[in-house]
Structures are given as structure tokens and as C-alpha cells.
Amino acid sequence: MTRPVTDPVGLEVRWDRLAAATDEAASTMLRTAFSTIIRESNDYTVVVMDRRGRTMAESRAGIPGFAALMSSLTGLVLDRFPAGDWQDGDCVITNDPWIATGHLPDIAMITPIFHRGALVGFAGTAAHSPDIGGTPTMGATELISEGILIPPLRLFRAGRVEQGVKDLLLANVRLPGALWGDLEAQAAAHAVCRRRAQEFLSDFGEPDFERFAAEVHALADTALRTAIRELPDGVYRAGVDADGVEGHPTHIECAVIVSGDRITIDYTGTSAQVPFSTNSTLNYTRAYSVYPLKILLDPATRTNWGSYRAISVTAPEGTIVNPTFPAPVVARHLTGHLLSCAIYQALAPVLPDRVVADSGGAPALRVRFAGVDDDGRPFAQMLFANAGMGASQDKDGLSTTAFPTNSGSGSVEALEATSPLRFVRKELRAGSGGRGRRRGGLGQDIEVHNPTRRPVQMVLLGDRERHPALGLAGGEPGAAAHAVLDTGERVPLKSVSQLAPGASVLISFPGGGGFGPPEDREPHLAEADELGGYTTADAREETRR
Question: Rounded CA gap, 543 and 545, in Å?
Fold first, then answer.
């Protein structure tokens, strides 16, 4: 039985203070990180956990899906390094996709928090590394080709670097300086969490976090269960299709089972795992199932470990959403991001006023450029840019907005300052939002030029070339994605190729699906779309018909 909160105002003050600590730590990491993936694209998370590794506060920026799996990650780390083995100043890292965030480029870090000599909690971060070794290829058939696998290892012991671990790690990547700089930025964030957590306990006269953690976990759990009880019991189903890889189209079969104050999401019937990098490990699948449900049912309550207790996620082993080791997984987001579409389509009949149509950024389109500039300096940059969100019953979809991830686009200026690449244009893609009573959000067009005398490697990781974001309730799909060289040649969205010296590529990000019949759109909104350049002549003509 849930214990009532005796001082809700005081609890909110304390919870807000600890959440602010994670935000401060995130700001520290952003300002000290070497790579633009963290600084500009917000591909990270920061959390503070109790001594059992259960999140109490999660940073409000960064990737929410990452925060949703930090508790299970830390629990597995504690199985290997029990609580009694930790010392002040220790640091454990891992990028194991079956433990951490689902692919090798993301490195998770766990450090202990001691107060008056006793272990009281842990700080945790996960951040996307600028390089993790391996051979960039869409032909990888096993994990080992995608980079160096780091099982849970101590990087620091009592504040001292484990030099052998550091040397082994940096010897297997192309950008050791940037990687180590980002790891030190994560460690700086942990130092902020540790200091603020100790101040928290001292200021509130608490010996540890046990009473506070029990209250915030119960509050978050109760809030979500209350929202679930408002839904009629039943089994709600949907299926989503995506391009997948050649000869292996992706199908997501989703059943949302509501029973009392619990929800089970079952992916039985989903495509089998493939010998390509689009497999999504179960922990990543769970995170990108829980997060869309949380913001749909209970968007107001802050998240922590308690937010996820009422939701179970199951998928048959050997499917693309629960692959067996050592399946390749570097592009796991191309499957995991689709889950929000399936869940929202399934719940549309009972929550039509809350769900959104498919988003063009589900899944996100990523482009990695790497090479050597004319002065012989190596570089590697990941282009994070966003597509259009799906429309809802009452509002047009947001243009160029990430969902279900929360990554930022990053500034063109920062990308140009850290690479020889030049961005010729970056503009809204007119007509890309699906038509409807409420229009889908617009994608964008980005043209990238290689001004060097050397070819630049270009790795495209995308989908929705043949399966655009679908509309809901009669809304139309958004525009599909594509990439085209200045020669007119199309570049497949899952490919590794070369951008020749002096060549350019135009990358068109997809639009979101519309909501409701297009003919029901109010005339003044249709006129505003036309005046604002949100529609094309073809779309206007179709509307008049």
C-alpha cells in the first residue's frame, strides 16, 4: 500500500532541488565536452539514484529514453560490483548494448555517492561518443564489426585512472582526444551530482536518501497508475511497417494490454532479428516503449524509477526488438523509434485527443561525415537534424522537432568550425507535412558541400524512404525522406559512400503525418499555410480538388 506523503510542498521543494542538480551537472557536461554530439545535439542523460541504483531525479534535457533505462543498467552493474566493493572516487563504464543504451557509441558511466563515510547513492550518465572504433558499414553482420565492446569496467579506482583500461580504450578509436575529453566531461558532471547530493542531505538533515526515494518513487508510481486506471481494460493493437534493409522490411506488431492499473506492451509478431545493424536490444525497446506512454498518460509528473513500474514490455527473443547477442545494433534507433508510432496508433481509438500521428523523425535520420582535411587532420562529425512531428487532434505538428528522442539539431556554425564541411542551405521543406484538418510538421532540406581535395566518407542511417509517416483519423502521410547528390544520383538511406571532392549532397528530412480529413481544415489556416510557404503549389491544387 502506498504511504501518503505527509508534506507534499516540502517534498516538491526537495525533488525540484535534486532535479536542478542533474540539470546543473548536464550543463557542466555540455560546457566541457569535446564533441558536438554532446555539446550541440544533446545526446546524453544525467541521473541521481538511490543506493540500489533506482533513479530519483533525471535531467530535464538530454534523451529521456536513456534516463528510463539507467536504473536497470545500474542494477546490472551492481550485480558485478556489489555495494560493499565501491570506494569514493570509483567510476565504472560500459557500452554493452544489452546492458546500456543499445549500441556501442553510447558510453554509460556510474559513480558512487558517499555521505559521512556511507554509500548513499549513485550518479549516472550516458553520452554518445564521437568514435568507438570499428568499421562503418551497413554490411556488418555481428557486433564486433561495429566497434570496441566495453563490459562493465572500472575507469577510475578511488579517484585514480585505471591506466590499462584507458590505454586499451584509446588505442582502439580514431579520435582518442575527443573521446577522452568527453569521458572527462561526464566525470565532471558526476562531480557536480556528488557535491549537490551531499549538500542536499546535509541541508535537510537526512542520513541518506532512503525516505526521500521511497516518497518520490511512490508519488510517480501512483500518478501513472491513476492515469492507467482511467483507460478501459482491453487489448489495443496496431502494426507499423518500415523500409528496413534490402530483403528484410521491418514490421512492428504491437499489442497494448490494459488491465486495471497496469499496462503490458507485447511485440509478438514483430519481424525476426536481421544480420544488419537495425536490431534494437530489449532494454532500448523497453525505454522507447515506456517513455511515449509516460508522456501520453502522465505528462505532468517528473520521471524517476517509480514512473516505469506499472509498465511491462515483452518481446520474443530473436526478434528485431529483442535480438540475441552478438547481433549488430549500431542503427538500433531505426527500429526503436518506430515503437512510439505503433503504441499511439494502437491507443488512438481510446485516446484520440492525446495521441499524435506518426512523426517523420520516428525514426531519426542521422548522417556521419568523416575524413581528413587538406591539412591532414582527421575529423568525424554526426549530423543531427530533425524531421516534422505528427499532428494531433487540436494542433498542427511541430516542424523540425525531434520525437520520440529529444536530440537537438546543433548549429551549422559549430559543425563548420570543427570540420572542413560547408553547409550550403538549411531550410524548411515546403509541402512535407501531411495534409489534414491539422497539418503534419515540416521536415527540412540540408545541403552539405565537400570543399576539400579529398573524398569524405558519408554514412547514412535512415528510413522512411518508402514508408512515410502515416496520418491519423483521415490525415495524410508526410513526405518521404531521400538524399540526392548534385549529379542527380540518389544515395540510399542505409549506406556508406564517398562524397567526392567538390561534390554536394542534399538530404531531405521527412514530414509528419496529418490528423483528420484535409477538407476539414479551416480556410484561414489553409491561407496561412500558403502565405507562410508551408505548402507547395501541388499541395494547394490537391486541396482545391
Answer: 5
The CA distance from 399 to 383, in Å, is: 18
Are 125 and 46 in contact by the 8 Å Cβ rule? The answer is yes
Distances in whole angstroms, Cα of residue 355 to Cα of each of 274, 297, 343, 352, 407: 30, 10, 9, 6, 21
CB 28 within 8 A of CB 188: yes
- Cα angle for residues 281, 180, 61 (degrees, 5° grid): 55
pLDDT higher than threshold 80 for residue 128 = yes
Q: What is the mean pLDDT of residues 256-265?
A: 98
Query: Angle between the 282-297 and 210-229 helix axes, to the nearest 10 degrees?
Result: 70
**Is residue 485 exposed (0-12), middle (13-18) or buried (19+ Cβ within 10 Å)?**
middle
Helix axes of 282-297 and 339-347: crossing angle, nearest 10 degrees: 40
DSSP H stretches of helix in 277-352: 282-297, 333-336, 339-347
Residue 35: name the closest of 403, 383, 400, 277 by CA.
Answer: 383
Yes or no: say if 244 and 274 are a contact pair by the CB < 8 Å rule: yes
CA atoms within 13 A on the CB side of 542: 12
Residue 545 binned pLDDT confidence (cut-offs 50, 70, 90)? very low
Could you tell me which of 91, 38, 79 has the C-alpha nearest to residue 62? 38
* Interior/surface letters 171-188, b for 16+ CB within 10 angstroms, e for the rest: ebbebeebbbbbbebbbb
Distance (Å, whole) CA 19 – CA 33 = 21
| Pick from 157-166, 233-242, 502-511, 525-534: least confident | 525-534
For residue 276, give Cα distances in angstroms to 132, 249, 296, 481.
18, 12, 32, 20
> DSSP states of 288-303 as a string?
HHHHHHHHHH-SSSPP
Give 93's DSSP letter.
E
- Window from 33-42, 316-325, 438-447, 529-538 with minimum mean pLDDT: 529-538
What distances in angstroms separate CA 153 from CA 67, 126, 149, 169, 196, one per listed residue?
Answer: 21, 15, 11, 11, 26
Sign of CA dihedral 284, 288, 310, 57: positive
Backbone angles phi and psi of 250, in degrees to 5 = -90, 130
DSSP string for residues in 483-514: EEETTS-B--SEEEEEE-TT-EEEEEPPPPPP
pLDDT for res 543: 34
Residue 9 CB contacts under 8 Å (≥ 6 apart), including other chains? none
Per-residue pLDDT at 271: 98
Query: CA 256 to CA 186: how far, in whole Å?
Result: 37
Q: Dihedrals φ, ψ of 21, to 5°?
A: -65, -40
In degrees, to the nearest 5, what angle opens at C-alpha 519 toward C-alphas 516 and 524? 100
Report the first-to-last Cα separation within the chain, whole angstroms: 60
* Integer CA distances (angstroms), 184 to 109, 114, 189, 433, in order: 11, 20, 9, 41
